[in-house]
Structures are given as C-alpha cells and as structure tokens.
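Troubleshooting log. The previous structure file for this entry was overwritten by mistake, so regenerating from the original sequence record. Sequence copied from the archived sheet and checked twice against the printout by T.R.
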Amino acid sequence: MSVIGFALFRYNARVPQLQIIYASTSGHTEYVVGVLREALEKGSKGLQVASCKAEEAKPEDLLKGDALLLACGTWNTDGPEGQLNPHMKDLLVGRAKDIDLKGKPVAIIALGDDRYFYTCRAGEHMRRFVLDHGGKILGDVFLIVNEPYGQEERIQTWSEKLFSHIREIVRS
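Regenerated output below.
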C-alpha cells in the first residue's frame, strides 16, 4: 500500500462510539462518569462519548453507539437493600422493559456503601437486565465502594481497559 493509500485508510477509519446512561441523585455516579469521560477523552483519541441521565433516556438510547455503559448506585428503595437507583429502575424495568439489545456490548459501573450487606448490588441488577435482553457484558463490572473521591486512579485504569474492549469491537 502506498503512503497515500495508508493515509487515506487511517483517515477513513471508523470512530468508535460509547453511549453512557447513568442514574445519579447524590452526585457520586455523576462524578464517576465525569472522571471516566475525562479519562477516555484524554487517553483514547478518536472515541466519541455521549451520555445522558437515566431519567431523560428513551429506550432507543440503549441501542446507540458501538457499546453502552450503564452506571448507577445501589439503593434501599422498594423494600430490601441492594436495589437500583429509582431513575435507573424506571428506565430498565419500566420504559425499556421490552427492548432487545441485539447483542449490544454493555459495560457496567455500580456504586455502593460497605455499611450494607448488598454493597454494589445494582451491578448485578444491571447485569441481569443486559443478559435477559440479549446484550453482552463488556469486560468486568467496575465497582466503586464508598465515596468515589480519591478513587480517580482506579477509574483511569478501568477507562483504559474499557477503551481497549471498545476498540476490539470496532476492529471485529
């Protein structure tokens, strides 16, 4: 391939896209998503990242991008501890309950507090949703226990793994 042909190939390479849908009421999940976005935008040139809050998301937003990231904290609503944030629950169990993810790769971030027995169990609820609706889990579920402040390096490291997974999706 000539130098010009190589340059055209690289210029026309498809840009990977990540859709993030998150639920945050205390601000912790929003903070984690913000740190993640910043890390991805700095460290993974060419990745397009879009995000929206779960309460504003439409079911079809779950199908956008090459990969989806769901993020939310673990709550104690609707009875026992270890539940989804109410906004994420409204989206996944309500508005998007009939969606087919059509093999969509989905990464998951779950937050929790170690004072509770079911720390970060929201991750399992989101995982179950993905698998029950025809999606594929992308990498390891990322768990943030207790305050996210001071855990920026962990988020950075996970962002690198996430970008690597997304890059492999686009290549295949």
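Confidence is low (pLDDT under 50) at residues 1-9. Archived copy saved in two places this time.
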